[in-house]
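Milestone M4 deliverable, item 7.
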Amino acid sequence: MAPPLRFTPREDRLILAMVKTGYTMREIAERIGKTKSQVIGRYHRLRSTVFPCDEARRDREIQERAERQVEQRRIANTTAIILREVRRGRGPHHRVAIKRARQNGATFALIGNILGLSPERVRQIHNGG
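Output delivered:
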């Protein structure tokens, strides 16, 4: 039968005390009726140990969040450009707005969503159609 998964506060205190006095994880596991892996994992959670893989994941998440924020700012700027140009009127201003938005990296789909046009129609206007 597998050892119980939950640790009691008493077991937590015992793990920390036994590690401090020099017991091995295997000895601690035998004493409290858990597996060595359970004791190792619990010890590190109690000590708030940050593993390299956790640190790398956190760094990656921070980088991805920063990239998303940059993309959101780019989209907001593009939207502002399009709306500013379109407010000036239809016709040639539409084409100018689309060209400026494309220069800023906006996709035909994004421009179409803002203007209420299909991406294909935006592409046609962009190409002079």
